[in-house]
Amino acid sequence: MEGFNSGSSPSKPNHVYLSFRGDDRSCDFTDRLLAALESDDLNTFWDDKKLEPIHSIFLPRSCLKAIQQSNISIVVFSKNFAASTWCLQELSAILERIHEPRHTVVPIFYDVDPSDVQNQSNSFEKAFAEHERRFTRSDVHSWRLAMKRVAHCPGWYTPHNPWQQTIDDIVREVKKKMRELVHVDVDMVGMQSRAKEVIKLLELGVNDGVRVVGICGMVGIGKTTLARVVYDRISFNFDASHFIYKGNEFCMSSRQLQGENILLVLDDISSYNLEPVIQTIDDNWLGKGSRIIITARDVGVLKGFKMHDIYRVKPLTKDEALQLLCRKAFRRNFPIRGYEEQINSVLEYANGLPLAIVEFGSFLHSIRASEWSISAFIEFKKVVNFVVMKALKKCFLELSPNGRKFFLDISCFFIGKDIKYAEGILRCYRYDKSLMTVIDQKILMHGLMQEMGREIVRQQSPSRPEEWNRLWDFNDIDRVMQNDKVTPKVKAIVLDLEDSQGRTLKAEA
Questions:
Q1: Which of these, 192, 199, 235, 435, has the minimum number of CB atoms within 10 Å of its CB?
Q2: pTM score, two decimals?
Q3: What are φ and ψ of residue 341, in 5° steps?
């Protein structure tokens, strides 16, 4: 793309992604920082914001790919940073990786007060006011939250024209973080036992054929983390090993795998990029003893290919969830005395979902424990809820039109109900089995997934339930019926009432 430069060699992995605003005040600093990073063998990806087209809206795909592949994201906040839509889109992409164990964010506040960035005041307030005139409320809201979240990470404040020693100190800290990421604790909370179970399914040293194992589960359950832990533990057993995110690069690299005893991990596979894997096995490109691990949200995608085994990732237990939250919030394995109520609220909200626990814990670590209060908890929950729901909604948007209808029907009407009530719906739709489970003939779904589904329905018209296509809450139904406001948009009404003996009476329309 014209106007784009990169300091990253395509043959080398990116250690660092450098995000900055190309204005006169910060360019000299970022040039010196970039030179210092490269001189210390930290392969750094950067885009030349000085050449950013005035009317450009979308960040180049090459930048998004580099963010996904980098270990460290350095964000240089300067006074004009928020004026660039590219910078704001970079923040949103970085925020999506902020919970990953092998990625970290380092904000640098260049000649700007960190509170101005966190609160979006002064020059940042002016920039966002301009964006609100040009872009949707949803876009601007997501940029604001991304900036607030990244700006709360531990970072550096540097005055205008800082000493070279300051830059050297920053580079030294970045190298330290790189070493920590390389030697990240593979026995992360809840992963040790799960990794052993996956490794057992791989049958290392027992089966000399090519063996394929799938890992499936809902968004945020830890599929990528688990696959990375397994990869780290067993990769030394193979002639070559490859961990490929999103499966996007497999077509380019598959021919290079011929004849090798390899370990191949394809993370976050969907039906459209599974075909090259099938072709690889059918053509016998892989050597004897090779192993393939494929992670996917939908078990149906994995069953489209001859898997030898499929491992379904379960939510964290209560003890595991508590330990993970304490590690992220307190940097210890046990809670601080006096904050049991807040901790229980977080655990109840997350319900064993690692994504929500890590996001909440990391955010709480950025503030003092003394600031934890009920009102603060509500505010924190809004920020964390946005990040979690954004990730979960991607799962919804990837469904087929019929799959979306099925998901909304289940999340609005059938959670906790006997499966016989939904047999008709299950027959009508090909559904993503990671969206729900059936235990003891009861339909279950993670609470955050259910809330996301109902919120999608509410957003059809937030304050007018008569415009929703599904109604399930007594108060909403009563309001619509009393005011005789039922519209043709209402396609289904399901209400459970309990009689005096506690028996459930079901009314459907």
A1: 192
A2: 0.59
A3: -65, -45
